[in-house]
Amino acid sequence: MRIAVAGGTGVVGRHVVESLRDAGHEAVVLSRSTGVDLTTGAGLDAALAGADAIVDTANLSTMSADEATRFFQTSTGNLVAAAERAGVGHVVLLSIVGIDRMPHDYYAGKLAQERVVETARVPWTIQRATQFHEFAAQLFDAAKVGPLHIAPRARVQPIAAREVGARLAALAAGAPQGRTTDLAGPREERLDEMVKAYARRTGHRGWMPALSLPGAQMKGMREGLALPGPDAVLGTQTFAAWLDEIG
Ligand SMILES: NC(=O)c1ccc[n+]([C@@H]2O[C@H](COP(=O)([O-])OP(=O)(O)OC[C@H]3O[C@@H](n4cnc5c(N)ncnc54)[C@H](OP(=O)(O)O)[C@@H]3O)[C@@H](O)[C@H]2O)c1
Hints:
Elements: E1 2-6, H1 13-22, E2 26-30, H2 44-48, E3 53-56, H3 65-86, E4 91-96, H4 105-118, E5 124-129, H5 135-142, E6 144-145, E7 148-149, E8 151-152, E9 155-156, H6 161-172, E10 178-179, E11 183-184, E12 189-190, H7 191-201, E13 210-211, H8 216-222, E14 233-234, H9 239-246
Parallel strand pairs: 1-2, 1-3, 3-4, 4-5, 5-10, 8-13, 11-14
Antiparallel strand pairs: 6-7, 9-12
Helix pairs in contact: 1-6, 3-4, 5-7
């Protein structure tokens, strides 16, 4: 099958591409670095010619509800409109566990994105997953006060991006399912401890305070609202095993 991956150069998107190619599919990467801009629609029609399915893993890193909503409504709106024009039979969206329990900040944008897909004429699948192990690395880079790295407090049940990518690739090669069962990692972790462990493992020696960040989304995550329910499908690689793998 010919399957397009929006955000196919990103943290999880690159694993979707790898899994698709390993399974013998043709993966087409949609990102600005390959000449496709989802926010303007430039390059989309040409890239989707002959595609059987699309996986949407494009992303904007922001905690602003307005920015996130504008990005996800526009980018996914352009994607599904182009999918309809190209006769694509299936759109798979990656979303996040618990966003309806804390519809604030970045998660407001993800909820708006789910609504775009749910109301599309193209058959769809929405897979919600928990935070990635790689989220610790993304936060280490992004959560800073001046030169000081900080470790945000939250309850999470993280999963390896590689396992999420493999699941998305399998879904894209199959029939549309609507909403699927949540996907999560094997055990609950403390986000601040994950960020500190990642920092130590990658050679950072400075003091890192664990902080309760402001904002309704982070408050919800501290209260456990991003944790999966008992029916979630669980990945196998723990955060500790992932850390061992990266060095
Ligand atoms: N991080 C987590 O823990 C986590 C957990 C669950 C779900 N998710 C979801 O997973 C998805 C991917 O997150 P991620 O952290 O893997 O993303 P990421 O590493 O930030 O990658 C973002 C991707 O989107 C592309 N992109 C951004 N703006 C674009 C534009 N205007 N046009 C075309 N492509 C664009 C980027 O490529 P270019 O820069 O080349 O355009 C890149 O390939 C998001 O929907 C996120 O909500 C994340």
